[in-house]
Design brief:
By secondary structure, this protein is mainly alpha-helical. It is about 50% helix and about 5% strand.
């Protein structure tokens, strides 16, 4: 009798273990893991209406400038810098891309100051001449050593890192040799351009805009929160574009036989 009770108890315990194994399968088992992955894929394929989530941006979302930048860097890493040391290989593609973006994010005068500062830190003057002359002359030519992150690099890699062209770099070095660490000033700075508007032209443009606003402008129906002096604000109707306003201004200038000016 006791033996039968013990056997029944063992059978019940075995059934309980089997149920536990079915309910909680061992996730560390490779076969079970494969089955779980397949079932997850089946669940995803069973929901065609579910939106696909992706953290990467397509090429259509990138700006034209970004595509040109990526193409330029790809060509640079494909062909190399051209020097015997292959110094471009000291830096990764992502590092050069990030460094160029940081340089391009600041104003151009600051970029040129950064370049001139590095040139000033690594510049050397020529030593004594080694010719057959009795009297040796001290060289006046200035030499630059291109450095970045403690590495000696070539000129091509230096310009690529700083997003600087060859002609622009030559102008920056020319300015440094003549004026020192002073930002370049454009030659036309402070000069009045030849196509500048005269005072009569400005008055004519302002009068046309005011008259056009009185005839075609739409006033606000009431006060809008956050907008000051709303009584004097007028808007163009939706059917009128800025190009249409300019064409009417050009037509009025032709009728008055006056010089056409941009408004």
């Amino acid at each position: 009798m006791e033996e039968e009770v013990v056997e029944e108890w063992k059978e019940e315990e075995k059934e309980t273990k089997d149920c536990d194994e079915d309910i909680n399968p061992p996730l560390f088992d490779p076969e079970v893991a494969v089955e779980l992955q397949v079932s997850d894929l089946d669940l995803e394929s069973a929901m065609p209406d579910a939106p696909a989530t992706s953290t990467t941006h397509s090429c259509d979302d990138m700006r034209k400038e970004d595509l040109q930048e990526e193409e330029e860097l790809s060509k640079f890493f494909e062909h190399g810098c051209g020097c015997s040391d292959n110094c471009y290989a000291l830096f990764s593609h992502s590092y050069i891309k990030t460094y160029r973006c940081d340089i391009q994010a600041i104003a151009k005068p600051v970029q040129e100051i950064a370049i001139m500062s590095q040139m000033a830190a690594t510049s050397t003057m020529g030593g004594l001449s080694t010719g057959n002359h009795r009297r040796q002359k001290e060289g006046k030519r200035q030499f630059f050593t291109f450095m970045h992150q403690g590495h000696k690099i070539c000129r091509v890699t230096f310009l690529k890192l700083h997003a600087c062209g060859k002609s622009r770099f030559e102008e920056v070095i020319k300015n440094y040799r003549m004026n020192g660490l002073i930002p370049r000033v454009h030659g036309n700075a402070g000069k009045t351009p030849n196509h500048a508007l005269t005072y009569d032209d400005i008055l004519r443009v302002v009068a046309f805009i005011r008259n056009y606003a009185e005839v075609h402008g739409i006033s606000l129906p009431g006060r809008i929160p956050g907008m000051k002096s709303y009584e004097n604000k007028k808007f163009l109707p939706c059917s009128t574009s800025k190009r249409q306003v300019y064409l009417e201004y050009a037509e009025s200038c032709e009728g008055l036989y006056v010089m056409l000016t941009l408004c």
